[in-house]
Amino acid sequence: MDIGQAYGYCNSSLHESERNDAEALTIRLGGAILKKNMYTRITIVLFIIGLMIAVQYNTIQKPAERDTRDIWAIREELAEEKKRHSTLLADIRSLNDVVGRYEQSEKTNLQSILNETLDRLKQQAGLTAVTGPGVILRVEPAPELVAMGYDIEEISPDLLTQLLNALFKYDAANVAIDGNRIVHTTAIRDINGKTTVNSVPLSSPPFEIYVGTTSFKEAQKMYSSIQASTFIDSFYLDNFNLVIEEPTEYLTIPAFDHPLTNDYLTEGKKGD
Amino acid sequence: MWLPFLGLVFGLALGLLTNIQIPSIYENYLSIAVLAALDTLFGGIRAQLQQVYDDKVFVSGFFFNIVLAAGLAFLGVNLGVDLYLAAIFAFGVRLFQNIAIIRRILLTRLDEKRHKKNKNSIE
């Protein structure tokens, strides 16, 4: 409209016919500009509508997860992460150590260092026998219940799994149940009524659970922890006595003697 | 003609790609604002088809309706009366009415066109 008025003002001194022409042009021009303006406004409005609909859609589809933890839970999580952090740092240091040694003896005795690494990895995977401090747990039928004529049944896999979880929670390094070393793929389950570890049926009670720890102090701690836990009661409910022997300095935990299956492991990409 | 449509598509794409979210407490307000916006849009289309379209009315109606709807919802929340239902009802009814009118106008136009074509072919 403004432009149209401006045109009109400029043309006031022209002849009548020319002025008429100019006015017609102005109106047409003004109309075009008006129409263009209208389209721009409608476009802006539609843009806003689109944006609003999209935001609404986003909000409905993926509601932002609310953090409902209180300070205490967050602190605990932080402590957990801190612990992870320190273990990772320790790992990095030991790996750096290995790298340093590799570099130092690049040509001289690479093989021996490789062997060393291989041994260490084997030990971690549970493929070698380990001797060190530890605690022996003995599972035996409760004698008074046997005397009363109770049937002593197989130990339940669930109970054994729970015990194992607790042992690892108390920082057990290596565990063997009735001579079967526990590795990361070990399955404890019921096969045809027989409780098996690594698919090997357990000998009927009494049998022993060897728990290896990193130090004698840890072994003592482990001893007290199991004493204080409810496992003795839990085993007694299943007609077993859980006997916890005093920690020893030298406990040999046998190696895992089956082939390790790693169907689902794949080689990681370099640099990952 | 395609420019407004492009604006809509652009707005949708921007919103979906940037993944903007609003806090769930404001969800109600936004939903009502969307409804008000849609109502205004269809009202505008209807007015255009009836040749009574006015730019000022359209743009001012768009913003005013959104603000009014959100304000009403806000007032309702604070008074403990579900006033946003009133807005939803009003806008919903008007939306349907507008769409019905648009449909009728388009149908009439289609009929006229066909009529003309028939006339031409007869001549």
UniProtKB/TrEMBL annotation, chain A:
Membrane-spanning segments: 38-57
InterPro entries named in the record: DUF881
Record has Transmembrane as a keyword: yes
Membrane keyword on record: yes
Domain of life: Bacteria
Keywords for the protein's UniProt record, in alphabetical order: Membrane, Transmembrane, Transmembrane helix
Entry-linked Pfam families: DUF881
Database matches in PANTHER family: UPF0749 PROTEIN RV1825 (PTHR37313), UPF0749 PROTEIN YLXX (PTHR37313:SF2)
Protein family: Belongs to the UPF0749 family.
Protein name: Uncharacterized protein YlxW (UPF0749 family)
TrEMBL record, chain B:
InterPro entries: DUF1290
Protein name per the record: Small basic protein
Family label: Belongs to the sbp family.
Localization of this protein: Cell membrane
UniProt topology in membrane: Multi-pass membrane protein
Transmembrane segments: 29-45, 57-77, 83-106
Naturally occurring in which organism (per UniProt): Lysinibacillus parviboronicapiens
Keyword list, A-Z: Cell membrane, Membrane, Transmembrane, Transmembrane helix
